[in-house]
Write a structure and sequence with these properties.
The complex is a heterodimer of chains A (about 325) and B (about 110). Chain A has seven helices and 24 strands. Chain A is α/β, with parallel strands linked by helices and about 325 residues long. Chain A has two domains: about 1-120 and about 245-335, 3-Layer(bba) Sandwich (FAD/NAD(P)-binding domain), CATH 3.50.50.60; about 125-245, FAD/NAD(P)-binding domain. In chain A, helix 1 runs parallel beside helix 3, helix 1 packs parallel to helix 6 and helix 4 packs parallel to helix 5 (about 190-200). In chain A, about 40% of the residues are buried. Chain B has helices at about 25-30, 55-60, 65-70, and strands spanning about 5, 15, 50-55, 80-85, 95-100. Chain B starts with a strand and ends in a 6-residue tail after the last strand. Chain B has three helices and five strands; from the N terminus they run ββαβααββ. Helices cover about 15% and strands about 20% of the residues of chain B. Chain B has a single domain (about 5-100), classed as Ubiquitin-like (UB roll). Chain B is of the alpha+beta class and about 110 residues long. The chains are: A alpha/beta (about 325), B alpha+beta (about 110). At the A-B interface, loops of A face loops of B.
């Protein structure tokens, strides 16, 4: 059981800066995120896209912003639990008991939800029949590539994940690469490699095709793909891999007894507290009159929620406002002279 | 104000007035049209505002740029007439535009 003054759910820009604010005022915190890396939407959706509306930063990419925030909290050595989705939040006396899908548990007076639009989950194949083969012969990520050795693998998608795996698996498997159009958005070098392998017969390329049906009893036996002219091809395959990126799902947050409206959590604008005392929501996931889904708004919301956490984490102390420019205590916390 | 017509998957038709200069996605969100999630808020980064544009209107829209086509790779059941509604800007010329909303966004 991990005990902390505040648990932050979500390691996007808002979660990271909220952690900074908590540590600055002398509170402990830990961060949990379902993704296997820090940065949230900035790193998952637009790492290379420029952002122009961060105050005092004329231009930076999602990745640069993330790296700067990581640097900014480096002095605090904050414990970050990646690849874990918070599944359960329930009252335990004066505290909140929090449990992740990996079984990790926390006890804390303050839970700050900085979860963007929820947790990222892989986008799946449209046909419903695909569900019964999931994690047996249909996958949306590769954990153990040895299971594909000597088998036929049909890979769907046009980005780097699809192309990289097509190239990699073509060394030991029969690979079909299927994409909805002629253009691939992966790195040019990989695209060239795919065409080369297609010419030499190591990859069977099907462009302008999409999956329409899957067949098999326990394991996948064949798939049906259809092109724009409605021609259907049936392909024998042992596995199908889909790489269509990630989609955000509100997920378990919906079950924590919070007031939710259109996939967002209703909060007040003084503490950014939800209808549950000690649970706050900041960043894209919170809503209040006039809410703007901007990163800068998330920073403000996190700063205020952090101050609100102080009261519950240190009931016998009084919070005193200090500036970073002049406070010796804050400078000590930052490790600067 | 231009009227935009949204056909949802349950065969319901929603006709709403959308101000010039707003996107079709914003028009849908402001009017609570079901089936347009717009998770990323119009940043062309999520493909959850995906719509099928009625064929007669498709060629009247400004061309897609590469980023939009890339995002449509991620959309649920993309077709030839797929667009991201956050990239269609409403103007008088688009008065009467008909878009069909997919059965789901992901």
């Amino acid at each position: 059981m991990n005990k902390t003054d505040a648990l932050i759910i979500g390691a996007g820009p808002t979660g990271l800066f909220t952690a900074h604010q908590l540590k600055l005022i002398g509170l402990d915190c830990e961060i949990v995120d379902n993704l296997d890396k820090i940065g949230g939407q900035c790193i998952e959706l637009y790492p290379d896209k420029p952002i122009y509306d961060i105050p005092a930063v004329p231009e930076c990419t999602g990745e640069e912003l993330t790296n700067n925030l990581i640097n900014q909290i480096k002095p605090f050595n904050i414990k970050t639990h990646l690849g874990e989705r918070v599944d359960e939040v329930k009252k335990d006396g004066e505290n909140w008991f929090v449990k992740t899908n990996q079984g990790k548990t926390f006890l804390t007076p303050n839970v700050i939800i900085a979860g963007g639009v929820g947790s990222f989950e892989p986008r799946k194949f449209p046909p419903k029949e695909c569900e019964k083969f999931e994690n047996k012969s249909i996958f949306y990520s590769v954990k153990d590539k040895t299971i594909f050795e000597g088998k036929t693998v049909s890979i769907f998608g046009g980005g780097d994940s699809a192309l990289d795996w097509a190239v990699e698996l073509s060394k030991t498997s029969q690979v079909n690469l299927i994409h909805r159009r002629d253009d691939f958005r992966g790195a040019q070098a990989t695209v060239d490699k795919v065409y080369e392998l297609s010419k030499s017969g190591q990859i069977n390329l099907y462009t302008k095709y999409q999956l329409t049906n899957v067949n098999g009893d326990n394991n996948l036996e064949s798939i049906e793909i259809k092109n724009d002219n409605k021609e259907i091809k049936t392909i024998k395959t042992d596995f199908a891999l889909g790489f269509f990126g990630l989609i955000m799902q509100l997920g378990p947050i919906a079950d924590w007894g919070l007031n939710i409206d259109k996939k967002t959590v209703t909060v007040d604008t003084e503490k950014f507290e939800t209808n549950q005392k000690g649970i706050y929501a900041v960043g894209d996931i919170c809503s209040y009159p006039g809410k703007l889904k901007l990163i800068l708004s998330g920073f403000h919301e996190g700063a205020l929620a952090a101050r609100a956490c102080f009261k519950l984490a240190r009931p016998n102390e009084k919070y005193r406002f200090e500036f970073t420019t002049s406070s010796k205590t804050i400078k000590d916390r930052l490790g600067v002279k | 104000m231009p009227k935009i017509i949204f056909n949802t998957h349950d065969n319901k038709t929603h006709t709403v007035e959308v101000q010039n200069g707003l996107t079709v996605m914003e028009g849908a969100v402001q009017n609570d049209i079901p089936g347009i999630d717009a998770d990323c808020g119009g940043g062309m980064a999520c493909a959850t505002c995906h719509v099928y544009v009625e064929d007669s209107w498709y060629d009247k829209l400004a061309q897609k740029d590469d980023g939009e086509e890339d995002m449509l790779d991620m959309a649920f059941e993309p077709k030839k007439n797929s667009r991201l509604s956050c990239q269609i800007i409403v103007s008088d010329e688009l008065d009467g535009l008909v878009v069909n909303i997919p059965s789901k966004q992901g």
